[in-house]
Every structure is written in structure tokens, then in C-alpha cells.
């Protein structure tokens, strides 16, 4: 995974130097914590997250668990690993399915974040697991969006629900509501609602997304965020949290050469778990997110 490459290398260097030492003095630990702090800031991790993360590491590293350890350096690495898992959300969080189908999953995020692609990825992933997903086109803002979703649906072998031209076009709330009835009638067990996004956070579209949310009461609202957006990640995530109160995060474009800051900040600043990671344009480039595995990749 290209993302985190530099951060990973920097942390590896820090730990290599630390391992050369036997016992660790308080100043060794301070020096290490400083290097970790710089590496995270350079990786675009939000400042508040860096501050909290490094102060937790420092506090634990100065305590008994390191001074009494047979291998103090290894113990520090273990602490960093634990704390990384913690800022990435702790336990893996799986999708919540409705007790009575259909399960409704709504996607929200900026334009270009990867929502439409994600709709296809999720559909394919769910279908493999025996589900019958229905993709719903509620991005009626971009002329091309419905066509794009049809292409993705076909690739995923899933059905699509979209407004007939001239029939309800322009009213995504209505389309979303109708899609649930359609899913019930035709026995689709999962409804995946693609919504419109702008390049920047936009009050009107946020209201539209909030209205869709209110109308269909989804089981999950997934906020899709492009890992490449770096420093803007926190403000964007907070705006969507206020606007649509998402239940989980999907990180997209983790295959790019982003510095990883978005990934490391978003769960922590919103308190919402990262549930999936997208790692390419293909529908198979997608996986459930495991905080512990991601931490290991970063510290590899
Ligand atoms: P939307 O506007 O949020 O619906 O975003 P799209 O799904 O249309 O994605 C925008 C662009 O990003 C498209 O060219 C996708 O092929 C691409 N894309 C989406 N997810 C990923 C990913 O995980 N990795 C890469 N490299 N590209 C992606």
C-alpha cells in the first residue's frame, strides 16, 4: 500500500535507532516521541490527534512497562502499535444489517471521493456473501452520475433503481423513498443509496443528504473520504458528521501516494469507525478495514 510509505519508513528508522540502545533513559524516550510526532505531522495527521497520540505514548513509555521490560525498545514499539490501533478505531466494526430487510446503506462524501465506485464494490462484496443488493441513483446533480452507476451496477452484477427520465427527476428524496418500496416488493435485501457530492462542502447538498437520511432512516450512513485530501480531511469529516451524522467511514484511494494523514485522523476526530478501505479503481479493490492490520502495515 503506497499510502503510509514515508511514515512507515520514518517510524522504522526511529525504531531502528531505538533498538541499538539497551536500557532507555527518559531523554531517549523524549527523543523518540519527538521523532514520532514529526513523522506524523509530516504525514498530515491532524495536530490534535498527533498531540494526544504522542502524549499517550510518552506517558506509557516512561512508565513501568518499559523500564521493567526485557527488551525496552520492543516494548515501546508495542505501545506505539497499541495506540495506533486505538486511534484507528480499536476493534473492527462490521456492517449492521437490518432485522427486517432491506438493510439500507447510504453513501455520502465529496464529489470524486469514490462513492459511486464504492457502491459497486459494496454490491459485489455483498453479492458474494449471498446478499441481493439494489443500487439506487440519488446523485441527480451530475448528468453522468446515473449512467456511471448503471455501469458499475452491471459490472457488479447488481440491479439499479433510478428515476425514469421525466419522472421524479430532480427529487432524490423521492427516489430514495421509492427505492425502499421497490426493494421490498422485489425482495432485494440491501439497498445502497448513492448521493450527490460537490467538490467542496455545500450547504444545499448537505441538506439534501440530510433529507434523504431522514426519509429512509438508513441502517448505515457511510462517509467516503479520499485519503489523498490530506489536511482537509478533518474539516470535511466534521462537516459531514454535522450534516448527516454518518455511522462509519470508508477510506478510498489508499493505493495512491497520500501521506496517510486523513486515514489516521478521521476515526479519532469523529469518533466513528473506519469500516472499509478502497485500494484501487477495480470493484475487487476493496476490503473491510481492520485497525490492527493497518497498524501492523504502518509499523512493518
Ligand atoms: P464519486 O464522485 O464520489 O461518486 O466518485 P467516483 O466513484 O466517481 O470516483 C472518482 C474517481 O476516483 C473515479 O475515476 C474512480 O475510478 C476513482 N476511484 C474511486 N475509488 C478509488 C480507489 O480506491 N483508488 C483509486 N486509485 N481510484 C479510485
From TrEMBL:
Compartments it resides in: Cytoplasm
Signal peptide: none
Catalytic activity: GTP + H2O = GDP + phosphate + H(+)
Binding site for GTP: 109-116, 194-198, 252-255
Principal EC category: hydrolase
EC code: 3.6.5.4
Keyword Lipid metabolism: no
Keywords from the UniProt entry: Cytoplasm, GTP-binding, Hydrolase, Nucleotide-binding, Ribonucleoprotein, RNA-binding, Signal recognition particle
Subcellular location, principal: cytoplasm
Domain remarks: Composed of three domains: the N-terminal N domain, which is responsible for interactions with the ribosome, the central G domain, which binds GTP, and the C-terminal M domain, which binds the RNA and the signal sequence of the RNC.
Function: Involved in targeting and insertion of nascent membrane proteins into the cytoplasmic membrane. Binds to the hydrophobic signal sequence of the ribosome-nascent chain (RNC) as it emerges from the ribosomes. The SRP-RNC complex is then targeted to the cytoplasmic membrane where it interacts with the SRP receptor FtsY.
Name recorded for this polypeptide: Signal recognition particle protein
Organism: Paramicrobacterium chengjingii
Lineage, opening ranks: Bacteria, Bacillati, Actinomycetota, Actinomycetes, Micrococcales
Gene this chain is encoded by: ffh
Amino acid at each position: 500500500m503506497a499510502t503510509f510509505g514515508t511514515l512507515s519508513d520514518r517510524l522504522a528508522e526511529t525504531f531502528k535507532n531505538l533498538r541499538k540502545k539497551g536500557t532507555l533513559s527518559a531523554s531517549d524516550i523524549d527523543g523518540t516521541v519527538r521523532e514520532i510526532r514529526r513523522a506524523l505531522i509530516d504525514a498530515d495527521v491532524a495536530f490534535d490527534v498527533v498531540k494526544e497520540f504522542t502524549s499517550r505514548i510518552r506517558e506509557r513509555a516512561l512508565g513501568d512497562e518499559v523500564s521493567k521490560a526485557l527488551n525496552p525498545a520492543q516494548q515501546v514499539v508495542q505501545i506505539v502499535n497499541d495506540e495506533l490501533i486505538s486511534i484507528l478505531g480499536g476493534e473492527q466494526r462490521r456492517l449492521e444489517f437490518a432485522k427486517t430487510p432491506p438493510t439500507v446503506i447510504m453513501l455520502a462524501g465529496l464529489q470524486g471521493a469514490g462513492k459511486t465506485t464504492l457502491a459497486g464494490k459494496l454490491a459485489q462484496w455483498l453479492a458474494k456473501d449471498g446478499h441481493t443488493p439494489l443500487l439506487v441513483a440519488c446523485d441527480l446533480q451530475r448528468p453522468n452520475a446515473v449512467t456511471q452507476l448503471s455501469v458499475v451496477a452491471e459490472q457488479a452484477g447488481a440491479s439499479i433503481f433510478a428515476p425514469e427520465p421525466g419522472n421524479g427527476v430532480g427529487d432524490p428524496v423521492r427516489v430514495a423513498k421509492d427505492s425502499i418500496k421497490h426493494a421490498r416488493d422485489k425482495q432485494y435485501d440491501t439497498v445502497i443509496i448513492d448521493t450527490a457530492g460537490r467538490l467542496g462542502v455545500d450547504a444545499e447538498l448537505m441538506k439534501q443528504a440530510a433529507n434523504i437520511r431522514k426519509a429512509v432512516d438508513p441502517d448505515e450512513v457511510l462517509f467516503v473520504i479520499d485519503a489523498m485530501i490530506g489536511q482537509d480531511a478533518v474539516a470535511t469529516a466534521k462537516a459531514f458528521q454535522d450534516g448527516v451524522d454518518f455511522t462509519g467511514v470508508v477510506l478510498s484511494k489508499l493505493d495512491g501516494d497520500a501521506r496517510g494523514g486523513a486515514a489516521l485522523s478521521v476515526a479519532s476526530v469523529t469518533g466513528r469507525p473506519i469500516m472499509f478501505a478502497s485500494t484501487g479503481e477495480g470493484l475487487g479493490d476493496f476490503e473491510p478495514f481492520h485497525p490492527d492490520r493497518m497498524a501492523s502495515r504502518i509499523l512493518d
